[in-house]
Design goal:
The chain has helices at 9-17, 23-39, 52-66, 72-94, 106-117, 127-136, 161-172, 191-197, 200-206, 243-267; strands at residues 47-50, 146-154, 181-190, 214-219, 222-232, 271-274. By secondary structure, the chain is α+β, with helices and mostly antiparallel strands. The chain folds into two domains: 9-124 and 243-274, no CATH class; 146-232, Chitinase A, domain 3. Helix 3 (52-66) crosses helix 4 (72-94) and helix 4 (72-94) packs across helix 5 (106-117).
Amino acid sequence: MESPINITPDTWLQRAIREPLTHFLILGALIFAADALFLSVRGDPQEIVITKETYAEARGAFVAGMKREPTAAELKVLTDRWVDNEVLFREGLALGMDRGDQAMKDRVVFKVLTAAQSGLALPKIDDAGLQKWFESRRDQYDLPARYSFEEAVLSTSDSTPEKLKNFVTALNAQQAPELESSLRIFKDRPKPNLDQSYGVAFAEALAKQTMGTWVVLQTQEGYRAIRLTALTPGREVSYDELKERVYTDWKEFTSSQLTKNAIREIAKKYRIRDEGKNS
């Protein structure tokens, strides 16, 4: 199963996007890194400074795509990616790879990346090793429970638990409720999506509800009027079902790790100073 790594700029982007992190986070990191690459101010060529502006650029790229503030872990992924690209760019300048390329500095990053990867090769892995890798990441492969439900959104912002309780009582009795509302319909929402949007406790409580009955459930943003309309239980998948996919994922993950390690080795030449972390 051994295969050498030969990554062109296009395939490198594809692999970066398919890493086991949120797709936007990686894509946003790349966009942010490209922007910051042009905007950063460089002093000592052997010193990389993560400034307050770097963090602001990272937050801006994330918020623009995700419509929320990044967590500390997500912000670290973005700034780590910026440092990786800065290291590759500095190395390209040191090797003279920027000659004739002043208007397209990002191409320098790809040139250095290709050079760094040229000597890398995937380690050997047998079927038992691949299955062990699969089992350690089973949460990425098992099929999650899926929920279909409706949410009645009250027209008033003053939706206390007591008002919601009276509201759903009227709905269940097929009576006209006193409060006006609009209906939101959700189809086949996977549990991880609900965990993120509404909270883990909400998803667990929703699974226990009687189908077709309006109830008041608490979310991480307050109480909601909810009616469960369908529930598809989750299912564990077997290694044999997904063997080809698992091998592809392992190759991409291992290639990514080897690439990161190669960049970290190059980064040892530089002093990386973080001025914006606690700002």
